[in-house]
């Protein structure tokens, strides 16, 4: 491959990566708005989050398309191909995070529209900020090709899971004490579940970043596999 | 590309597709065993489903790897590349179905181990058999590159969603009437949720089959986009 072509390839790959980071930025904002909408009972904000999911979807289609064209035109060798294939997988996880955010906004809207009076008082803020932090760290590890940071995301996922379990226990207590809170409690439970899934998707993406940089598939090896890959040359 | 190379490519692509169908077959069986384990209260069967998820994961890694090697070695043109990229996306959805099945088995185990006495009597069988049917039809549409069959899967997804909502309503009624059923009711709710998600993943896969065959991205256009693509030449 001539240097000229190789530079063009790098440039295009960089374009895809920039697009991915932009998509990630939009989704970060979506999560924050969805949670504010739920907590501050702001219906217009929730409606905007739901409408914005179309933008996320359009970005997914565009980026997938760019990846296919990049491979077809440049026919990259194994190493570069690994990077693009990881990007292709990351795109899917990002879009699925978008779907979870839309679900949060819809659940929030459902709570507002049903004029629920018996709302269990659970704290979702901490779990949500953990999930946003995981996503941000993942995007950062992608931008800087930083395996150590990606490993930290896998560690954080355990915290989000623990938060979810704690929220579920609190909700069960509320619901058992006053069955009138059950209906709204389930909406809140599904919001907590969506937050937990955002953590899962961020973890998946962080594992693809490791694959991208190190060439080691750490998807099913747990934290130990991540740490071993991060420590290797 | 000489005919000789092209034939080898076809042969390898066929190998990946066969691997995908085998993975799909294993997952179908996993869903059936998980549901039988839950309904017949069969703990060893649930344990086996949980253990078998490792096989599903190994198949994912192997197939992803085969796809990357296929692209690197054969450098396929746009049309063939579209097929492989769809396969890469389908692999992820299949593995995620595997994760949902594992969750069902773990929830079932949790119900058995907690010796729950107050078990709400909801019927999960119909939803589960719909989801299995969707998966089977998707794999079939993939084997035969049949867009019509893939469109039917998207239609069926609405049925699974309706089943989930009905199960949730029933569970809410049980839980409100007798709060002692809340804890076990939530386990059953998450099993129903996992079934609904199996339907979602099958729908995603069916949409990739359409992309594979028709080159039209129908992921975000709903049933109408699928039907239009199926009707086109």
TrEMBL record, chains A, B:
Superkingdom to which the source organism belongs: Bacteria
For this protein, the record's InterPro entries field holds: PhoU (IPR028366), PhoU-like_sf (IPR038078), PhoU_dom (IPR026022)
Q: Provide the Gene Ontology terms for cellular component.
A: cytoplasm
Q: Pfam families, alphabetically?
A: PhoU
Q: Give UniProt keywords alphabetically.
A: Cytoplasm, Phosphate transport, Transport
Q: Where is the PhoU domain?
A: 20-106, 125-209
GO BP, one example?
intracellular phosphate ion homeostasis
Question: Where is this chain's protein located in or outside the cell?
Answer: Cytoplasm
Q: How does it assemble?
A: Homodimer.
Summarizing the function annotation, the protein's role is:
Plays a role in the regulation of phosphate uptake.
Q: Which family does it belong to?
A: Belongs to the PhoU family.
Protein name from the UniProt record = Phosphate-specific transport system accessory protein PhoU
Q: Per the UniProt entry, what species is this protein from, by scientific name?
A: Methyloversatilis universalis (strain ATCC BAA-1314 / DSM 25237 / JCM 13912 / CCUG 52030 / FAM5)
